[in-house]
Amino acid sequence: MLFVLSAPSGTGKTTIADRLLKSCPKVKRIITATTRPQREGEVHGVDYIFMDREEFERKIEEGYFLEYAKVYGNYYGTPKDQVLRNEEEGIDSLLVIDVQGAKKVKEVYPENVLIFLMPPSLEELRRRLLGRGYGRENLEQRLQKAEEEIACAKHFDYIVVNEFIDKTVEALHTIIVAHRYRRENFLKKPNVNDEAISRILSKVSCKSFESL
N or C: which end of the chain has fewer CB within 10 A? Predict the structure, then answer.
């Protein structure tokens, strides 16, 4: 399955995603490609796949990306091959992308799960952004963008407020585990070793529910 985590800048989605992956077996994060400059401490292929603009635009033409968008003047995109590889290996994919990217992924994978990470308040979001050292002009731009993204939360499958990290990670873990056991997902690949039960699920009709 494909899980998409979106949130306004400063909400803490990267921190939450890193903690979530440690508690969720068989979930692998898709590494986003970007043209933004590599920051101190970031590792190519671990934090992001860093590309120059020319290479990124060539990859667009080649159909390399599942989705891509330009944010604050830089390109960001989801490599398609990572998602397909996880599918082949039976591993769920986690995408940490912005709202417009989430919409594009939903168009390609209608069955994916969209999770919106909500800041506890705009004032708290402002405080977190100030802590990152953004200047006033950039800060106001990001807060305005945050309001636009928050308005899109109503179109996501789940909304989780990130006030306390441990509780947020626990909530996301619960969402992922519960979604694996939804009827339609279980029936695609029954998590049972008994061939007789698998045969019944796939071949035998339920008389009690036939009239519904």
Answer: C
